[in-house]
Every structure is written in C-alpha cells, then in structure tokens.
Amino acid sequence: MLWFIGGGDDDIRGVEHKPNVFHYRNGTKKLTGGNSGDQFVFKDAANQLKNASAQGRLSALDGGEGNDTLSLADAIAEPGAGRLGYHVDLKAGLMSVISLDDSTHQRKLEPHTSLTSIENVTTLAGASNEVIATQAANIIQAWGEDDIHAAEGDDRIDVFGAHATVHGGAGSDTYSIAHVAGHVSIIEDGAQDSIIGLDWRKELIVSWTLEGAHLVITSRFDLDDDLSRIVRIKDVYQQRGAQRVLQNAKLLFITRDGFHLVPDLPATLDTPGPITLQVTIIRPGSTAGPVIVYEDEQTDPRKKLERYYIPRGERLTTLRITEHSPKALSMVYLDYASQEISSIEAYYNATIKRELAFDRIMYTECGLSLRFGQHELLIKNLASSHSVGTIAIGERLTRPALAVNQPIILVMNDGVSWRLEQPPVADDFFANETFRNSSSSAWKSSVALPLKPCAGPYPFYRPADNPGHQLRASNACIGLKSLQRQRAIEHLVGEGSTYLVHLTRNITLRISTPGALADAPAQLPYSSVWELDATQLGAVEISLADHLLRIGEVIVHLPQYSQPDDLIDQVHVITRGGIVHSVYIEFDTISVKHIDARYFDPEFDYANALAATPARARHLAVQNAVVRENALAQPIFDPRDRSWATSDEPLHKLAFTQLQVLNRCDHQLEVCQDLLQFALQADPPVTAEQLMALKQHCLALL
C-alpha cells in the first residue's frame, strides 16, 4: 500500500497484512506499519538539515512485524545551520539530527523520531550520518560520509558514498562498495567470514598492499587517471613486538565481473613497511570476450561497456560512433605492439552559425586516423559540439567546447593503453578571413608521438575458443553460420578424414587434428584434409602469416607443429569457379594447382582470375571428377579456354558433361531430389519428355 503524506501532524496506521510504503514530510508523524516489510521514506530529510529550527515533538515510526526500512530520501549538497547529518540508533530506537553547538562548536544530537521495530536504514546522500545497528541482521545503505556500527547479526552494508567507515561487529557480514572516488574503511574481527563486493571490474584494481596492520586495495577509473577508490580493511594484522601476526584471514572479495579473490596473507611478517600482496583467484569471472571486427566499418551505438578486437592486417578499419554517450566506454584491442604505431592524424569539420551579434563555431564530426604500417584505424565522430560556443575568441567569433562523444581506450598487445582524445584547436587557428568567410571548413593535423599512456596497464583480450566441435572419422561437410557479433573462435576438431567446410562471411575459426600429433595417446594413421569452400564469399584475397590464414573477411587459425613425427593437415581453399588454393603450412606458402569440378562455372573468367598466378598458362589437375568413359584417366582443365581433357591426351578436348562429378554434399543432392518431387506433383503435370530432361540435368550434376 502506497501512502503520500504531506507536512503537518498525522497519525496513520497502515494496512495490516500488506507491505506499506509511507512517503512523509516534516511535521509530527505517528506512522505504524503492518506485519509485512514496510518502508518509511522521509522526503524532507535534506530540508530538515537546511532548516535551523528544531522539531517540537518527536515523531514516531513503528514498523510492527516484518523487515522494515527507514529511508532518508533525497541528497544534500551542503548541510546548513551547523547541521551535519542524522544519527540513527536502531538499538536505542531513536533518530536524531547531528548538529554543532553555536557557542562551544561541540557536536550534539537533537532527537527527531522514535523508532520501533526498524531493521534497515538508507542514509542521506551528501550528509555525515551515523548508524548503530541492532543484534539482528540489518541492511544498511550508506549514501553519505557515514560512520556505520553494525552489531552481532549477519549484516549487509552497501556503501554508495565517497567516504565511509564501517564497523562490522560480530557475525558474517556482506559488503558492497560502489565505484566512486574516495576512501572506505572496514573493521572486522575476523571471527567469521566477510564477503566484500567491489562494484568494478577486476582489471581496474591497481594494487593489493599491506600498510602497517591494514590491507589496502587501490583501484582506478577508466576515464580519469587522477581518481582512485581506496578500500582499507583495518587491523588485519596485530603488531606483537617486531612481528605482525595475522588476525583476519576470512576475507573474500568479489568483483563486478564475477572474480572471487582471496589475498595471500602470510601468518606472520617480520619485515616492516608496506608489502605488495599476491591474490589468488578461487573462481574466475565471466568477462565478455571482445567482438571480432571484420567489416571495413563497425558502428558503435552501445550505451554500456563494449569490447572490440581488431586483428592484424593490411586494410582500413573504421569505428564509427553514432551517439553521444560520454559514459559508454569502448575498449578496442588492436593486435599490434605500441611501438608499431607509425603516425596519428586528427581530422576536423566545423561550421559557422551566423547570428545577429555573433558568428558561432560549431564542430561537427571530428576524429582520428591511426596508422600501423599498412593498417589504418579510423575513429569517426570521436568528438563534436553539442551546444553553441560561448567562448569569445574575437570581436564576433565564439567557439564551443570540443566534447568526446564516446570514450575509447585503445589497448595494444604489449599491455600499453591510450585514452583517445581529440586534440584541441588553438584559438588563433580561426583568426583568418578564409575561415570567417566560409560556411564550413575541414582540415587535418598531425598528432605528436608518443601518446600519453593510461596510468595503469589493461590486460589484452583476444577472442577465446569455443568448445571444440568434435568431427567424426568419416568424410563430412560442415556449414557455418555468420554471427552478428562473434566473441569467440569456432573450433573444428578433425579425426583424420576429409572435411568440406562451407565458409560464411565474417567468421573466425580454428582447425586442428590433435590425434595426428606425435604426442597423442594413440596417434592417428592419417592427418585431416580441410577443404575450405569460399565460393560464396565472392572475390577474396588469400594470405598466410603467423599461422593465420585470411580468406577475405574470414580468419582461420591453422594447426601448429613442434615435432618431426607430427602428421601435418592438408588445407585447401576453394574460391569462385572451383579454383583450389593449396596451403602448405610447413612452408608458409600458397599455390594453385587444381580445380574442383564440384564448383565449375562455365561463365567464370578463369584466365583473368589466374592472371597473377603461375597457374595462368598451364593445365590444372581436376579434383572430385572422373571421365565417364575412362575412370582411370586423370582429367585436366585449361583455364585459358575453359576446356577439359585428360593428362594422357591433352589435345583431345572433352565436354564437361563427359565428366562424372564426385563427392557432392548431401544437401546439394537433396536439391535434385526436391526438384524431381516438385515436378511429379506439378499441376498441370509435366510431360514424360520434360521429366526425362530434368533427370538428365540432375545426372549431369551427380
């Protein structure tokens, strides 16, 4: 039941068997809840501190049965009239206003409200509050600069404010610490477990140190190197003579991304001074893998943290920011070392908004171009203006702030990271007639290297492997589906057979045959043959480097071998028209020697496709086809005139229909079966001659 109670004196009893929520303001109140969990929300908590007059009579809140909460709503920027905050004593059943005596400047308490059967408290943000809990299990949410005294119960304390001191008392307590700049101190006796939730990612923790008797966790912020969050667990050790002796080893820390961490605390320490501690991960978190960027342009409309992985390669990659989201961080993991950056160029676009009294500059789309050899990373719309300029830089001319639309941190594979910022433009740049007389301008400028790195290192995230797809020890075809946002590498695990893999755009996969390695428990007699069908990808470039095979926008991680007795997989890429590019893993080379008859296209320009290869002027051996009248003859193909022959009689030309195509996929054969079934059920029915012709076409395919 929801109650809205204004100022004045009120005596209200809530509904007995339902939870009541009382929103009330100043005045003398007597509010009584029911036997469910009730909430008492003091809407004038901030105004009460600003008002110098004391309350005449005590208000009274009675929660009755159930788990009941007092919330001091709103926030106060600066308490007035010497009033600091609220003292909420759940054990004594009294809430008071904390103030300073005008004459003695001593702290004093002005009783405000009696409390009966109230178990939980939410403090006033911006104030200096004190809370004393009961022996039961309490929930305390600290929004101000608070001093919390929990008691014997298993309490939950959520610290949302910048600064707080929490005395956990006896019991197994659970904490949640918000990621805001400031200091939080926690005092626990170590008799029972304490769970401390850190509401930030593990990668933002800078250090775990022991300072005197206290454990200190220091964390940073993505967007400001000058800010830090410091959590201090006090009296973890006790000084006994020259030794520090461990008193509290029952501390578990859980980060926002789910890492369960326990600091390695020695039983005794003989050395003085601060000590850097190691941390054990007892349960790994669930950090989302980065999105693999394939397309030339990737838009980033997200309003939350997103990660992107950009592989090496000679190409242009564009990341376009589409919305103004200054708190939506993007982490971009670029697979280059920091010293590989060769140049950075900033580009700007600006217009002039002409008014009666002023000419106002407005930045439109501004961004950065970063080059790593032949690879260019273009950040579009990194910064722009969002309001007219008010900063005068001439008699009529004003300029606005150049604001980042979305923060981006670029992380290199050596751990160096940069926070990308649009360099400001000097005011005198605009002091020229050309700029004044134009309605819009565009220009570029070089950015000095090196960039200023972020204060702390970020881990470099590569996409991990999905669990392997275990293929059978028989020939098979595998169809892959393109994902809108692929975050993990698909892994195909062979078993020594031939696998035809139908590729799709924008996918990364790994192929391997663990059983073909010399150290396999029972080595296979054969390695696997991988036929990578790229015929649906259009015209593609194929390259091989560092065991990465690139087929257009497809990336294939190839097996790696370390022992001479390893059986090496065969890899073939089939492009348009059935041209077979054989990949020699051990020599890092690719060559064209075959054509796959399953993908022959009589309209395809083979001569042009092979013009840049040594195969342009010779016959190609034919795979997956035999001559119908002589199955022992080896068919060959001449790309210059798209003619067929046999190796024994290269001058005796054959028609493609004289070949029997082999090893088609089952799903390709199903097309013929479906077509024949459709013809049989057609209305009007097909003639016998038409049905025979259809059968002959299907037989030619088979």
**Number of E-state strands:** 62
Tally of individual helices: 5
Give Rg in angstroms: 36 Å
Report on the biggest sheet: 14 strands, mixed
Task: Tell me the overall shape.
Answer: elongated
N- and C-termini, Cα separation: 75 Å
What fraction strand?
35-45%
Percent range of helical residues: under 10%
Give unreliable regions as ranges.
none
Strand order of the largest sheet: 2-4-6-10-9-8-12-14-16-18-22-21-20-28
Number of structural units classed as domains:
5
Output the structural class: mainly beta
Question: If you average the pLDDT, what whole number results?
Answer: 90
Q: Could you write a compact summary of the structure shown?
A:
This protein is mainly beta and about 700 residues long. The chain contains five helices and 62 strands.
Structure description:
- With 702 residues, the chain is mostly beta strands.
- It folds into five domains: 1-128, no CATH class; 172-286, no CATH class; 291-446, no CATH class; 464-574, no CATH class; 666-701.
- Helix content is 6%, strand content 42%.
- The chain has five helices and 62 strands.
- The strands form eight sheets. The chain has a 14-stranded mixed sheet, with no helix packed on it.
- A hairpin with a 6-residue loop joins strand 9 and strand 10 (107-116).
- Helix 4 packs antiparallel against helix 5 (688-701).
- The longest helix has 15 residues, at 666-680.
- It starts with a strand and ends with a helix.
